[in-house]
Amino acid sequence: MSNRKPYVREMTRTWWKDHPFYRLYMVREATVLPLIFFTLFLTVGLGSLVKGPESWATWLEFMANPIVIAINIVALLGSLFHAHTFFSMMPQVMPVRIKGKALDKKVVVLAQWAAVAAISLIVLIVV
User: Fold this and answer.
1) Which of 39, 56, 109, 115 lies at a 20 to 30 A Cα distance from 79?
2) Could you give the CA distance from residue 26 to residue 3 in angstroms, rounded to a whole number?
């Protein structure tokens, strides 16, 4: 047996703050927090819709609260940021080839945003 002590690298709780890549990663992963609240608000809204008009009116009053509106705006911005980072990664993870030729990364990203815009427009028209 050796008497040498093994090397143990010190790891602080804020190790990720030292490198921009990891900071961006942590911010991207933190976007799920406001989305959890948004999802809970919608779930409660569906439950109140089932319970009747009085419960629905109470939920609508709750949703008009400025704090809830701020959380929803942060959730929207977080989901847009998450989509932006995902869409920009997509051409690197799964390159699109047409007739053996790689499609330009900008075209793939713009096509994804166009699909988001088209689906959003369809939902707005239908609803």
Assistant:
1) 56
2) 39
d(CA 8, CA 121) in angstroms, rounded, equals 55
Confidence of residue 11 (pLDDT cuts 50, 70, 90): confident
pLDDT of residue 102: 86
Place of tokens 């050796």: 2
Task: Quickly count: other Cβ atoms within 10 Å of residue 78's Cβ.
Answer: 19
**What is the amino acid identity at position 96?**
V
If 0-12 CB within 10 Å is exposed, 13-18 middle and 19+ buried, where does residue 85 land? middle
Determine contact, residues 112/90, Cβ cutoff 8 Å. yes
The proportion of the chain whose per-residue pLDDT surpasses 70, expressed as a percent, equals 99
Query: Can you give the pLDDT at residue 45?
Result: 96
